[in-house]
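Morning!

As promised:
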Amino acid sequence: MPVFEALRLALQTIRTQKLKSGFSLLGVFIGVASLIGAWSIVNGVNRYMTEKFAQTLFGVNTFQLRRRPMFTPNVPDSVWRAWARRPRIRFSDAEALTAGFTVPVVTAWQSSENNTVTYRDKTARDIELTAASERYFEIKNLRVAIGRAFTSQENRSGAAVAVLGDAVAQRLFVDRSPLDRSVRIAGTAYRVIGVVERQGSILGFPLDRFVVVPALSPAQNLVNPPGILDAFLVKAQSEPEMRLAMDQAEGIMRSRRHLRPRQDDNFALDTSEGVQRFWAGISRILVVVLPGVVLVSLVIGGIVIMNIMLMAVAERTREIGLRKSLGARRRDVLRQFLAESAAIATVGAAFGVVAGIGLTLLIGAASPLPASLSPVSIVLGVVMGAGVGVVAGVYPASRAARLDPIAALRQE
Amino acid sequence: MTLAQTFRTGDTPLPNIIILTHKLTRAYDMGGEVVRALQGVSVQIHKNEYVAVMGPSGSGKSTLMNLIGCLDTPTSGEYWLNGQKVSDLDDDELARIRNKEIGFVFQTFNLLPRASALHNVELPLIYAGAGARERRARAARALERVGLGDRMEHRPNELSGGQRQRVAIARALVNDPSILLADEPTGNLDSTTSGEIMGVFRDLHRQGQTIVMVTHEHDIAAHAARVVTLRDGLIASDQLQAA
């Protein structure tokens, strides 16, 4: 019997026994749907991390000089204590680096701390107060939607001006213009000169709850002890130039800190790669856990299909006997039942793909997780589903194929 | 009627002999006890013969039927079907013989309940490897031959008992087998319908079909030209009778 005939017969059986087939494809359905759904989340976050987060928010060709790395999964306490003992980054370090670079770079200072911003009777709490130099906006890709950013003069003179994040402007001013209004941060009045374009959120964390003030404005004492920076940001024009600038930064910092050749750096040079490595660590966990979940449901699905097929063989013993008497060889009967169980599983997988796509769209629409469908997961899902069907069908089908036609025909 | 060939082991049957069994035995092991269902049956059936096999239950007629139908293999002896020695073929070769050489008609019809008459008749052609178009055409012709040209798309439960058995006969004929092998073909039918089916058999016989029919009813056996009676695994009598 040609494969096509076997398949046609299998689909006919599924059609006529909808309920039974429905139950038997449930396991594969859940397995494939969860595979595609979970894969979409990993895939979506991956893309988000590499494209939007790393590139846009961290900045292209940008690195940061910090006391310790920003994103670090699973760091032992001893390392944390060592990091905490490191000297901090000082204004003077930043000035020395700016003077020392031989490649064209854009640099900015940055220190941040949560604080409260008020306007008359309105209060915005838990706002990220950032004291930064004027190129900060450029490096971080923050476009000022209303008004302007502060100038280098304003920065050097420590002018009491502020650029608000979109959420802060909304909170304090609702729909009035915030420009030239006076907001208060820890009792000091700051004149609002600009509002940054809305950034949205990343993985559910809002990105618009911030205020940026000049690095030397009075607020510098709210974010760090005098003369101390959280981070020194450096943006180069290309990847190789960034590498070169990082080498220069490392050299300058090592000599400023009098490190001997065998001593490790006691500072960190972070790039967006670091962020990606951090995420890769998390996604690796997902990639390890995910197949387990999928495997369990596929194995259960396979067992269910095997039992349903054994039942089908028992119920259709007479039919098998008849087919054999009409000339069906063992391999014809084997192929018929294998095709049937593979077809059940594939139909289950197909429904699973549809549900997985639906799940992906739902996650994308209803949760902060960015989900992105991966074609690989769809192919893999269907192939695994059909494979489970074939594997689960082997035993029942070989039992059917070995039936004695005389005994099978005699059965009621 | 041609005289029977004097057959010895190592001989080949004459070309006009469709079925030849030589000292055919079949023994079953029933939990340590050996049951000899056939104890050495030698029978020759010529082309276009119409033979009824009779005998009380336990006489071995079902066993002989299964051996002739290539559903079973003998313990010893030879079985030649249409010039081919089939007593020592393997499973797959026997399946091919059943498909090409034998048309089965069962007491209980054995139609697939969810398939149309046409599809039921097509079944042997599927295993013969015929294409869909050819299958349909040949199945339709076979159904017309048994007078069911207007019932092709009906399912078995939409047909009467007699019509179902005609579908089964069409299925048996569709591959142009050497023999039509009927096992109590009227056992589930009333006497009027039985007569009708016997009419179909008579017509087929006149058209040149070789028919072997197992029955325990004398009035059904009376339709055949020759009656072979078995008793205790041996041929008790083998008589020609006027049609």
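The first helix of chain B runs from residue 61 to 68.

Hope this helps with the figure draft.
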